[in-house]
Write a structure and sequence with these properties.
Order of helices and strands: EEEHEHEHEHEEEEEEHEHEHEEH
Bound molecules: flavin-adenine dinucleotide
Oligomer: single chain
Number of helices: 8
Distance between the termini: 47 Å
Helix content: 25-40%
Radius of gyration: 21 Å
Structural class: alpha/beta
Number of strands: 16
Shape: elongated
Largest sheet: 9 strands, mixed
């Protein structure tokens, strides 16, 4: 069975959800192996095996994460050269897309980014991409080399499937070119205790309709264990950080449930959330364009509707 590599996305050994999703996809294509770069590989190995990694390639030299993404592409390329996998799956975030591009050049392979589905087809690895900020769906087949596919978070439901998870060390010396940009400082954002916007299963977003008071939005989000998003109008007004902006010039999210409160539904906002599985809007204007794409709409004042909804969720 063909080998399929998954680049592990982790925080100090703690596996991010995107990795379990990629391993779930990898199992449909062939035999999944994980490529782990960084320290604490032993912690990660157990989780990787739980989600189906037959083998875990480990690069844990201290220089692994001291530089920007070039070393990761070089390390991955060394495994690709050795294993000739059918595909390499990478999370489709900004670092992942750069790694995919660099890996494509190094291995002369076809690259697809922003994939939402990946299957084994008669002519090779077939992908479904969500492009132009989610307004088009494109099917493409990689015809050259190992298919390098960056997959959007939340594209599949995770299914555990225990496997061996045997460890194999990656033995390479990073080139000077890979070490051309060194990280001099890396400060994590102060944690809100909420899930990361692009990984969250539920996102509750507020817009100009909040008038700057995100309290009801945050309380409803917290009752659901959701991430908080914001429209650009809310961000431009300084009510919420840009890191939480959803849309064309913000983040693209595709959660199971997206709740838009006090957001009109401009095309640029839709571009970041219209692939959400279920969309709910709360808006006091029944003519608001957001109602054109919702599954459920509430015409009402968010300051009345959200506290009521929070109470109901808390009681449930
Ligand atoms: P508005 O359009 O002002 O809508 C506010 C809504 O709240 C209205 O529908 C109103 O009826 C409702 N409302 C008011 N009070 C209440 C209440 N008490 N209860 C319930 N409802 C209430 N926008 C993004 O969001 N993300 C982007 O990434 C983005 N990128 C852009 C890129 C470009 C190049 C450009 C030109 C624009 C971009 N925009 C983006 C801006 C976008 O065009 C809209 O201006 C913006 O999305 C509007 O935000 P909003 O819906 O919060 O505000």
């Amino acid at each position: 069975m063909a080998e399929v590599l998954v680049l592990v996305d982790h925080a100090g050994g703690k596996i991010r959800k995107a990795t379990a999703e990629l391993l779930t996809i990898a199992r449909r294509l062939g035999e999944p192996s994980a490529v782990y770069i960084g320290p604490n590989a032993e912690t990660a190995q157990v989780t990787l095996a739980k989600y189906g990694a037959h083998k875990v390639y480990v690069y844990d030299a201290p220089d692994a994460l001291e530089y920007l993404v070039a070393p990761q592409a070089e390390i991955l390329a060394s495994v690709v050269e050795k294993a000739s996998p059918l595909a390499v799956l990478i999370p489709s975030n900004s670092a992942g897309k750069e790694i995919a591009a660099r890996l494509g050049i190094r291995t002369e392979s076809g690259v697809i980014t922003d994939a939402v589905d990946v299957v084994a087809g008669a002519e090779g690895v077939e992908t479904t991409q969500s492009v132009f900020a989610g307004s088009y769906t494109v099917k493409a087949t990689v015809t050259k080399g190992s298919a390098i596919v960056a997959v959007k978070p939340n594209s599949v439901a995770i299914e555990p499937a225990p496997a061996a998870g045997a460890v194999e060390k990656i033995d390479i010396t990073l080139s000077d070119a890979a070490k051309a940009a060194k990280i001099t400082e890396s400060k994590p954002k102060e944690s809100t205790g909420r899930p990361e916007l692009t990984e969250a299963k539920i996102v509750v977003s507020g817009g100009r309709g909040t008038g700057g008071d995100f309290g009801p939005v945050e309380e409803f989000a917290d009752s659901l264990g959701a991430a908080v998003g914001a429209s650009r109008a809310a961000v431009d007004a300084g009510w919420y950080p840009h890191s939480n902006q959803v849309g064309q010039t913000g983040k693209q999210v595709s959660p199971q449930l997206y709740v838009a409160a006090g957001i009109s539904g401009a095309i640029q906002h839709r571009a970041g959330m219209q692939t959400s599985k279920t969309i709910v809007a709360i808006n006091k204007d029944e003519e608001a364009p957001i109602f054109e794409l919702v599954d459920f709409g509430v015409v009402g004042d968010l300051f009345t509707v959200l506290p009521q909804a929070t109470e109901v969720v808390k009681k449930a």
